[in-house]
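protien #1 (seq + structre)
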Amino acid sequence: MGFFSALFGLGGCKDKKQISSKSQTEGVYATAQLNHLIMPLQRGERYEDPLDEALRKQEYGSTDEGGTMQLQSGEIAFIDVEIILTNLDEGVPFVIKQLESFGAPKGSVLRVHDSEPPREITFGKAEGIAIYLDGVNLPKEVYESSDVNVLIEELNKRLEGHGEIQGHWQGPTETALYFYGNDAEEMKRLIRDFTDQYPLCQNSRIITIAPKPIEQ
């Protein structure tokens, strides 16, 4: 569906930066794996840069860029932020508190490489839902007459105070809109009246993405 091409500034994923031997000698390596389906530029603005600033100010360490993991389909599976901690006792809880304040969703994990295997600490407070829109099977006139910006605007209105759109993905047959807020089930309830009647939402799927669904 070409009508998403101008949204959010789509671009390629930024590769992870390799941790240098110098960085390893200066602190303990940690990785924050975030259950947040956002693009690399958003990852840097929301997480990497403000966390780096906060860590340096407290003299707890720094960030060392990050990465984006994609599924075979090209949809984002998760993002991560590489961290060097020079003060573990204070730094670990500080990192978690900061990332949650930046919007880290449930299902996120901090891996601290001070042991083998690394320690894993789950964290996150935000919840999220994805709306998958059918991009190939609806009547041609639906795609021609519907406006995705109207859809997003109306959903954001209904979610005001409870959540907002923060990302999207365009695949070969579906396009996903990702909304994050404080309660996934409440967000579903608030938008149901509109998604049930808006033509572009025919055949759509609405699923919870944070917390992650339990695998069968």
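ok now protien #2
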Amino acid sequence: MKKSIILGLTVSFALSGSIANAAMSGSKHDFSGQTWASGQICLPCHAPHNNVNTTGTLLWNHAASSASYTFYSSPTMKATTPVAMSSISKTCLGCHDGTVAVDSFGGVTGSITISATNNLGTAFGNDHPISVDYTTALAASKGHMYNPSVALSGIVGSAGTIDADMLYAGKNRMQLLP
């Protein structure tokens, strides 16, 4: 099964307050209609404001994946193969690797797993580089990659660069987009 992989995270991760709520409303990640979500749009992923979850992470409410991952490798890949999944990718994979139930949040272990079509699994060895540094130097060395600090992201309504719009907190990481 071909996995759906691109740079960055959804713009909704960068939004806040009612704008983020509006961006989530009706999306694939809006679980407010599920009985296990108690009618809340944010609660399955985010802890109520100013609270810390059971792992000590501020505002994150969902159980994390503890899976081991197989990373992409190729003789033509110039990026350094990571030794561990980046934390932001693991945040998405908490649901999308199929090892944690989508209703596992707030300290409760759930039982509803993600559908097979949205389950990315844990083996990325034959698909795409994940959690590697995506820098200007890497883009220049490959020749066919866009310079993340200059190239526009292409996100509708944004005039931002790949780095500004799609990479997490300037960390220059390639990430999953579920």
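The two ends are 14 Å apart (CA to CA).
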